[in-house]
Amino acid sequence: MFEPLDPLLHSQLRLAIMSLLMNLEEADFNYIKEKTGATAGNLSVQVNKLKDANYIKVEKSFKDNYPHTSCSITEKGVDAFESYLNALRSYIKPTD
Amino acid sequence: MEQDNLKVEESLNIISQMVNTTRYNISEDKIIYLMWGYAVALSAITQYILQYQLNVEMAWLVWLTMPIAGVVNGIYFGRKKKKATAFSFTDRALSSLWKVFVVALIIFLFASPVLGWDGIYPVLMVLYGIGTASTGGIIKFKALSIGGYVSMFIGLVAFYLGFEIQLFLLALSVMVSFIIPGHLLPKN
User: Fold this and answer.
1) Residue of chain B whose alpha carbon sits nearest to that of A39
2) Could you report the per-residue pLDDT of A15-45, keeping only the tens digit for each?
3) Which of the two ends of chain B, N or C, has the fewest CB atoms closer than 10 A to its terminal CB?
């Protein structure tokens, strides 16, 4: 039986963002941009979608007089990611 | 980039790629392991030569290399922290571990008048071992783990030997715990 995949995570860039943040306490917007190869505009849109769903926390501040955006995953985000992985498993399990 | 009809394999590839990019790269710190290893080893051997071969009274002054190495260490990690764009759980674990190590080291140095230097040097070897074996365990780098445990064992042996030999054992302990693993780390 296939489990439904969370549509918010079942997208290339959002899944990449969440996978990065699962392994980090926090990451700069620019770090995520570099690692995912996304454009700033697209990344900003996807980050906001994840933030609106409370999957990630976004903090804006100043670092050396430059605006600095850092992202970190929330508990809800961790749960959602784990559920997504479990759902993925149901697709790759050999059928009896 | 937006793509909603991902295949399962594609999802797994994305997760795997991103996990790989966040893997801790200890090779960045190769220079620091080598700096501490060589500074301690050379200082210990120099102290032996000055104290036991040339009968210099204040031979212990060679250890002034340590605050100098400490300043270099501070500048290096200060710059690294400033440049860092991501902070991982491994970063936090290693940072906490080495902070605890430095505090313990300072406590034992202050305890030296009570314990005597021949009581302190073996403790330092055990401490070096704790630091490197734990780091090796956290980042899964066997050379550091093995070097750390060997350094602790050398510390145990050193407790039973005189100060003169302890100076060589101290050099040996940092050789196995810092210098050899440092050289075995791949280039950045």
Assistant:
1) B1
2) 999 999 999 999 999 999 999 999 999 999 9
3) C
What's the pTM value of the predicted model, to 2 decimals?
A: 0.81
**Sheet arrangement for strand A66-73:** A56-63, A66-73, A24-28, B86-88
Q: How far is A17 from chain B (nearest CA, A)?
A: 8
Query: How many Cβ contacts (< 8 angstroms) between chains A and B?
Result: 76
- Over residues A40-95, the pLDDT tens digits come to 999 999 999 999 999 999 999 887 788 889 999 999 999 999 999 999 888 876 65
Q: Do A13 and B1 touch (CB under 8 A)?
A: yes
CA distances (Å), origin A3, targets A25, A92, B5: 29, 11, 15
Separation of alpha carbons A62 and A36, rounded Å = 23
